[in-house]
Structures are given as C-alpha cells and as structure tokens.
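Structure first, sequence second, as always.
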C-alpha cells in the first residue's frame, strides 16, 4: 500500500529573496560562526535577527543545514577558494563511501 503524502504548510510570510539572493540559489560563503568557506543551496532567508540578515543553506561539505551571514556571502569567489571547497567536498564524499563499504 502506498504511503500517504503529507501536505507541508507553506508560510505566506516566508522571504523568497534578499537583494540578489534567492531561495534555491547555490552560493559560496563563510559559515557562521566558525567562518569556514563553504558552498550550498539557500533553503531559508532570515531577516531582522540580532546578528544581521542571514540564510540557512545545505552545506555540500558536511551535508547539514548551516547558517551564513549575507555579509559573508561571496559574490565572485576566487579560484583558490573554489578549489579548496571542491577538495573538501570530494574528501567528504570519499570518506562517506568508505564508511558505507565497511558496513
């Protein structure tokens, strides 16, 4: 028997964009508060918080939802930053594959 699909309520007050950033956009940024460079897709935008406007994104390095300030989001990251993030993503994926093979 098929599972019943749950209807996820949509928040009408949800912010869909902030400046040039939109939900679903893939961005390079520095995570808050550890300030580590990362890359991910924006899932939620938060305004009016005590630390300033920030967004929640799915970090490609860790696979977790993380926070980043809009002031720490990189519009045009350097080649070196892109390469370091891509290396971290590759390393994390290889470690996850190795871990799944051990089971």
């Amino acid at each position: 028997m098929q599972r019943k699909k749950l209807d996820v309520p949509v928040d009408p007050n949800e912010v869909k964009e902030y400046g040039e950033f939109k939900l679903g956009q893939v961005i390079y940024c520095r995570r808050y508060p550890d300030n580590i460079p990362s890359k991910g897709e924006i899932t939620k935008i938060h305004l009016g918080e005590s630390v300033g406007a920030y967004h929640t994104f799915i970090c490609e390095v860790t696979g977790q939802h993380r926070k980043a300030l809009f002031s720490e989001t990189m519009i045009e990251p350097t080649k070196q930053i892109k390469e370091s993030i891509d290396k971290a993503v590759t390393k994390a994926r290889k470690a996850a594959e190795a871990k799944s093979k051990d089971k």
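Margin note: The chain has a mean pLDDT of 88.
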